[in-house]
Design brief:
It contains 15 helices and 17 strands. It is an alpha/beta fold. The chain has an eight-stranded mixed β-sheet with strand order 4-3-2-5-1-6-7-8, sandwiched between helices. β7 (about 190-195), α8 and β8 (about 215) form a beta-alpha-beta unit. α4 (about 95-110) packs across α5, α7 (about 175-185) runs parallel beside α8 (about 200-210) and α11 packs parallel to α12 (about 340-345).
């Protein structure tokens, strides 16, 4: 069978075996490949880094720019259900055939160079993006910033969302070292938007050292608001009476503030109207980010998988009101620091359903249960183990009353696992015919 007949899954399986390591930071190989491929964007590029809030930031940028009439190309990772979600063209997941064509180009240019899975697939996606000739490209950093593959592209505007402790084995032991890695996406003379209200000094120092145009939350732009609406003010421009972003949650206003700063900084290249801002924020969608699926019981989906994100999730759950019992379906990678996660959300979850995940990097459900039991002080809470996210969700549905809520959170694999056949709509047992 000729190579062009291969499916996208064939290509992804092959990409997994091109290099002995899953993650190997460093840009030498990717830079060399970018030259071979002639990777050039003929449009403004926005690069987004941060511990949490990257996906939401990219989604809001995409939504506002789309409402302003621009053709967008957005690269985000990882995906929830299908690999094609990693590249959105004009708001739609890319067609697999376009990715396959770009993977063939990368494979031809690669020769005998060994590339990691992320390098190979990112180069393919970047090639595919340039072929589409969009009006604006939005790139989400996979890990860190300075040594991430997307950093081979010189950005026209860097956005750094939150900076917190995650992936420490790659990025360093504290916020200062992690901040330095994320600051690596900044470019001299180009806007660098920092929406973390208390950024590490390393971020500010790096911006000053290279002469980036630093926009800081609380200094160069700010937000105000009441229960009904909010406002944004930046260098020389204000928006007032804005509806809250359609993405729910306590931290989304900070993400939205950074988005408006980025668009303000790029106004000379990408002018937008106030109407596009209003509509874009009102219509933005992002599955798996504090996504509430109405039903009986209620279902909440959230890819919170580190202490910082789980703290935001806990705050958001608190704000939802009263539920007799909260059921938690949870699965996560083995490298996560469980203690602060369990400590923060433990008081809110009455019944745990720990799940195995279909990747060798995941923590075993039995180990999660043991970690939870070791620190649990609630006599009224219980925990069980399950072979996969869907099985865990079914067990939770079986146990839940109609007025309860089920929270599915943790890894992208956990949330993606319950979305595989579409968004589940829950109907309590007593509501089913014959029930």
């Amino acid at each position: 069978m000729p190579a062009s007949m291969e499916t996208l899954n064939d290509w992804l399986a092959r990409a997994e075996h091109l290099h002995p390591k899953n993650i190997e930071l460093g840009l030498e190989r990717a830079k060399e490949m970018a030259q071979r491929l002639g990777l050039r964007f003929g449009c403004p590029v926005i690069t987004v880094a941060g511990t949490n809030g990257k996906g939401s930031t990219c989604a809001m940028l995409e939504s506002i720019l789309t409402h302003a009439g621009y053709r967008t190309a957005v690269f985000t990772s990882p995906h929830l259900v299908r690999f094609e979600e990693r590249l959105r063209l004009k708001g739609e997941a890319v067609d697999a055939s376009k990715l396959i064509a770009s993977f063939e180009v990368v494979e031809k240019a690669r020769g005998d160079m060994s590339l990691t899975y992320f390098e190979f697939t990112t180069l393919g996606i970047l090639h595919c993006m340039t072929e589409e000739k969009p009006d604006v490209a939005i790139l989400e950093v996979g890990l860190g910033g300075r040594l991430d593959v997307v950093n081979i592209i010189d950005t026209d505007c860097a956005v750094i969302t939150s900076i917190d402790l995650d992936h420490m084995e790659y990025l360093g032991p504290d916020r200062e070292s992690i901040g330095f890695e994320k600051a690596g996406i900044m470019r001299p003379g180009k806007p660098a938007i920092v929406s973390d209200p208390m950024p590490p000094q390393s971020v500010i120092d790096h911006a000053n050292a290279i002469g980036a145009d630093l926009w800081r939350f609380g200094t160069d732009f700010n937000v105000s608001g009441d229960k009904q609406q909010w406002g944004w003010s930046g260098r020389g421009r204000r928006y007032s009476g804005l509806a809250y972003p359609a993405l729910r949650g306590a931290n989304q206003l900070i993400n939205a503030a950074g988005v408006l700063a980025a668009l303000e900084a790029l106004r000379p290249q990408l002018p937008i109207t106030a109407q596009a801002v209003r509509n874009g924020l009102a219509m933005v969608e992002l599955p798996g980010r504090f996504q509430i699926v109405p039903g009986e019981p209620a279902l909440v989906l959230d890819v919170a998988h580190n202490a910082h994100a789980v703290a935001a999730l806990a705050e958001n759950l608190d704000a939802m009101g009263f539920y007799p019992t909260t059921h938690g379906v949870f699965g996560v990678m083995a490298d996560k620091d469980l203690a602060p996660i369990l400590a923060r959300i433990g008081p809110l979850i009455d019944r745990w359903y720990f799940t195995d995940l279909p990747t060798p990097r995941a923590a075993k459900a039995a180990d999660l249960l043991a970690s939870w039991q070791a620190q649990n002080t609630r006599t009224d809470a219980s925990g069980s183990v399950h072979a996969g996210p869907m099985e865990a969700l079914r067990a939770a549905i079986e146990q839940a009353g109609p007025a309860d809520r089920i929270v599915v959170f943790g890894s992208f694999f956990t949330v993606g696992g319950v979305l595989e056949n579409g968004t589940p709509r829950l109907q309590a047992k007593h509501l089913l015919p014959g029930g």
